TrEMBL record:
InterPro entries named in the record: DoxX (IPR032808), DoxX-like_oxidoreductase (IPR051907)
GO cellular component: plasma membrane
Family: Belongs to the DoxX family.
Record lineage: Bacteria, Pseudomonadati, Pseudomonadota, Betaproteobacteria, Burkholderiales
Main location group: membrane
Key words, A-Z: Cell membrane, Membrane, Transmembrane, Transmembrane helix
UniProt source species: Undibacterium terreum
Name this protein carries in UniProt: LysR family transcriptional regulator
Length: 139
């Protein structure tokens, strides 16, 4: 019981900033690994299968997806321009859920909706003090 009491009194363990760090790192890693990395590794195949909901060209759609799912998660994980970097991710996920897959039930689209919640929370809350943004006074 004494150990639990010490942990609760230690500000690093009860810090919302630690929660934001965890949210940034895990959300960014998940998005990068599940969606971004396969697009880069299998670019030609992805180019043939990616949806183009606004008729801007498959190449543009894929490059925007790579930007939002590879480069933005790296910035978010590091805590660099965090709120700004979350916006393309939110935009991409919103298009995917509302324009590309509007017929999906909540259960079918739960991964996308959860990612929207994660990156929406990051955009609203910011990176927290364990970030490069905070070290530069921009959190």
């Amino acid at each position: 019981m004494q150990t639990a009491s010490r942990i609760q009194k230690n500000p690093i363990f009860s810090s919302p900033d630690l929660g934001l760090l965890y949210l940034r790192l895990t959300g960014a890693l998940l998005l990068f690994y599940v969606h971004g990395l396969p697009k880069v590794l299998h670019y030609s195949t992805e180019l043939q299968h990616i949806e183009d909901p606004f008729n801007m060209g498959r190449a543009f759609s894929l490059w925007f997806a790579i930007f939002a799912e590879v480069f933005c998660p790296i910035l978010i994980a590091l805590g660099v321009l965090t709120r700004l970097a979350a916006l393309p991710v939110i935009g991409l996920l919103a298009v995917a859920m509302l324009a590309v897959h509007p017929d999906w039930s909540i259960a079918e689209g739960q991964f996308g909706w959860l990612l929207l919640i994660v990156f929406g929370a990051i955009a609203l809350a910011g990176p927290g003090r364990y970030s490069i943004d905070a070290q530069r006074g921009r959190a």
